[in-house]
């Protein structure tokens, strides 16, 4: 689909995050979770980078209607950590020195 770079996929992690509902609006969602930081930019298959979105919200996340910040807030709540921590964990997973 939109993520075109080949890589090792952590299917288990993706399945664990995969839900039946959009985490943003609650609409039914059946596709694979969205990567907040795209795989192309180095985003990983970690819970802090994955969010289940319905088709509509997913499109919004890719065309900029929904900000990364907004998505990270939801992930932070789900993981029981602060949005700053989500940001840091993602940066670290992407190989940055935070
Ligand atoms: Zn939605
Ligand atoms: Zn996506």
Which key features would you list for this structure?
98 residues, mainly alpha, two-stranded antiparallel sheet, 2 strands, 4% strand, binds zinc ion
How does this model look, in words?
With 98 residues, the protein is mainly alpha-helical. The chain has one domain. Helix content is 40%, strand content 4%. The protein has four helices and two strands. It has helices spanning 11-17, 55-63, 68-79, 83-93, and strands spanning 34-35, 50-51. Strands 1-2 form a two-stranded antiparallel ribbon. Helix 3 (68-79) crosses helix 4. The longest helix has 12 residues, at 68-79. The radius of gyration is 12 Å and the shape is globular. Bound molecules: zinc ion (ZN) (2 copies).
List the helices and strands and how they pair.
Blueprint: H1 11-17, E1 34-35, E2 50-51, H2 55-63, H3 68-79, H4 83-93
Antiparallel strand pairs: 1-2
Bound molecules: zinc ion (2 copies).
Number of helices: 4
Shape: globular
| Count of the domains | 1
Taking the sheet with the most strands, its summary is: 2 strands, antiparallel
Mean pLDDT: 90
Straight-line distance between termini: 30 Å
Number of DSSP strand runs? 2
Bound molecules: zinc ion
Strand content: under 5%
Strand order of the largest sheet: 1-2
- Uncertain spans, ≥5 residues at pLDDT below 50? none
Radius of gyration: 12 Å
Structural class: mainly alpha
